[in-house]
Amino acid sequence: MACSFVIRPYGSNSLKYLVCALCLLVSVSAIGAEKKPITVKVFIAGMFEIGANQGDKAGEFQHWYERYFADAQPITIPGALTPVFCNKNGVCGSVLGMGKVASSSSMLAIVLNSQFDLSHSYFMISGVGGIPPSQGTIADVNWGSWLIDYDLGHRWMPEEGEAGAPVFMPRQGYEDIRRYQLNPALVNFAVSLSKNAPLKDSPSAQAYRIRYPEPQARRKPAVTVGTHIAGDTFFHGPGLSAEAQYMSELYGADDYMIAEMEGVAIAQVLARTVGTDRMLSLRGAVNFDQGNPNESTLAHLDPAPGETAGGFAETVENIVIVGGSVVDHIVSHWSDFKDGYTAK
């Protein structure tokens, strides 16, 4: 609001000062009346929802919504796929969309929107993924220590290269965006706090596990930690799983644990804006990244009726059981987390 007045030749200076003071008071009042941005303590991001946010089959966001946002009003954000919901305790969340482009576009729109103060926020990137049977099992929940882009390189057909050699080579110029290490202190804290969470299981998941000979594939669900690799194309089969592990080793990361589609792209958005030190990536395993020894890769990708992996419903619930304990701890101990987290 601008103040203006006219100084007349024979007017009193006292009147001029009075008008200016009143104008300044109105300006300050108008500024104070502007709606302050929401201070976000934790932002929870799902990638997809199957239907509604409550009352039907749950996807990646429904259990988060029911736990934190059932009474929240939607906040529409230009450029974001779905509205943002915020509760009175400073927890906000939204569905960003599947794939690197959709999810990162939504995340950028939200971070840049003036309705939110995300300068001290923690980001819980939450979803499902695939897991190698040598590393884990259906309904596992895994904290990401590293996020890697499955793309950003060169690939060729195996028969066009050296026999038995890798068919991937990183492309120069992407060194800063092809992999991100998440804050080790924060990741270790999340693992320590949630490692004994009471995870759910199901007879259908148990029956599916025994098709695989690996001990890790046959065990009960657990909370684990490792590298998440994101590609817009679902990669399946023992060959591409081995390639994902090769990439993890090539980039100096931890063992490949989860195949997903979004994490590294969201990390790039946060790195360019508010930073990744407060970012957590949490994924539940809803499938193995390859078939069992009696199943071809194509049969695994397109299973016959009754041959699909069980445990989806339990896994999406497990994600929130594990992640919710961390969200609640951060909010209830906000003074310890507001200025960032380092190992205590």
TrEMBL record:
The keyword Signal applies. Residues 1-32 form the signal peptide. Keywords: Signal. PANTHER family: PURINE NUCLEOSIDE PERMEASE C285.05-RELATED (PTHR38643:SF1). It comes from Paraglaciecola mesophila. Gene3D superfamilies: Nucleoside phosphorylase domain. This is Purine nucleoside permease. The keyword Plastid does not apply. SUPFAM superfamilies: Purine and uridine phosphorylases (SSF53167).
